[in-house]
Amino acid sequence: MESPFKIINNKDAYDSLSVQENVLAIRSLKAEKNCLVLCHTYQRPEVHEIADFVGDSYGLSMQATKTRHDRIVFCGVHFMAETAKILNPEKTVLLPSREAGCALADTIDEQKVVEWKARYPGLPLVLYINSSAAVKAHADIICTSANTLKAIEAVDSDKVLLAPDKNLYYSFQPKTSKTIIPWEGYCPVHKAITKELIESVIAQHPCAVVLAHPECSPDVTELADEVLSTTGMVDFVRASSEKEFIIGTELGLVQMLQRAHPLKQFFAVYNHKSCDESCVCPYMKAITLGKVRRSLEDDVFKITVSEEVRMKALNAIQKMLSLGRDK
């Protein structure tokens, strides 16, 4: 798998214009084209400005089921836009950058999942949402980091397959009596958050609450006070009386929390010159304001999912949505 640690900088010509000019143009185009803009928390701060909803994979999927807009522009990555298309086959779903992929999703494809399931006949597949539509078509239920445990408990089997992130296995196997058989995948961005980096930041800020994403390695999550999805972290910070937090996930969430809670302090675990880029998701950062504007103007890039794949994947996604969140 090609290293994702190179930031994608091929901006649109519109990116040479001011943020304010692009924001005004995008807002006008949204109204003109009856478009909903969904934005993941890991997106650039300026992209958050033009979003109708900012959230994690679960929240964005829920919003996609509620919209009456004709178009959806998805400021996230490809599998997220595919999920929106599966839920809204009659709508135009646009992804502003062709390069907005996912290194974790790339660790498993349709052929691999078919071969893997054949080794464990009859076992249900609990599939993390970070996967392509073609792979989702072979799942029994989809999960996000917000409801992985609920999905595992929902399937009628004492043994389950879990793919593609093995770190979810480490986070959730101790919490269930079921036997989990994991796929050997991982998110390179979260893997770059190491035990040594966490310990270094804790030493600098010993009073800070440590929050980590379940995609982090087990030696990192063991050091955390709470292991939470991105929205789980947002909710925890909002409810907490604590004033200092170490955030073990992608930089976009750290930036969002800083804007939302100016009286609290948030510390990234990668303020280290040698790994500044490794803990920023290059695929999320592939989307810029200029590309969002171009997407709206030219209806690019359209997401397509065959009806056969869509119908197979839809059932598993709907099961996920019906579960709600863990936390």
Task: Describe the protein's topology.
Layout: H1 19-32, E1 35-40, H2 45-48, E2 53-55, H3 57-66, E3 71-75, H4 78-87, E4 92-94, H5 110-119, E5 125-128, H6 133-136, E6 141-143, H7 148-154, E7 159-163, H8 166-172, E8 179-182, H9 188-191, H10 195-204, E9 209-212, H11 218-221, E10 226-227, H12 230-239, E11 244-248, H13 251-260, E12 265-268, H14 289-298, H15 307-323
Parallel strand pairs: 1-2, 1-3, 3-4, 5-6, 5-7, 7-8, 9-10, 9-11, 11-12
Helix pairs in contact: 1-14, 3-4, 4-15
Read across the widest sheet, the strand sequence of neighbours is 2-1-3-4
Provide the structure class: alpha/beta
Helix content: 40-55%
Q: Residue-averaged pLDDT, rounded?
A: 93
Gyration radius from CA atoms, angstroms: 19 Å
Number of domains: 3
Most strands sheet: 4 strands, parallel
What fraction strand?
Answer: 5-15%
Shape: globular
Question: What features would you describe in this structure?
Answer:
There is one protein chain. By secondary structure, the chain is an alpha/beta fold. The chain folds into 3 domains: 13-102 and 283-298, NadA-like (Rossmann fold, 3-Layer(aba) Sandwich); 105-187 and 307-323, 3-Layer(aba) Sandwich (Rossmann fold); 189-275, 3-Layer(aba) Sandwich (Rossmann fold), CATH 3.40.50.10800. It has helices at residues 19-32, 45-48, 57-66, 78-87, 110-119, 133-136, 148-154, 166-172, 188-191, 195-204, 218-221, 230-239, 251-260, 289-298, 307-323; strands at 35-40, 53-55, 71-75, 92-94, 125-128, 141-143, 159-163, 179-182, 209-212, 226-227, 244-248, 265-268. The strands form 3 sheets. A 4-stranded parallel beta sheet has the order 2-1-3-4, with helices on both faces. Strands 6-5-7-8 form a 4-stranded parallel beta sheet. Strand 1, helix 2 and strand 2 form a beta-alpha-beta unit. Helix 1 (19-32) runs parallel beside helix 14, helix 3 runs parallel beside helix 4 and helix 4 (78-87) crosses helix 15. The longest helix is centred in the C-terminal third of the chain and has 17 residues, at 307-323.
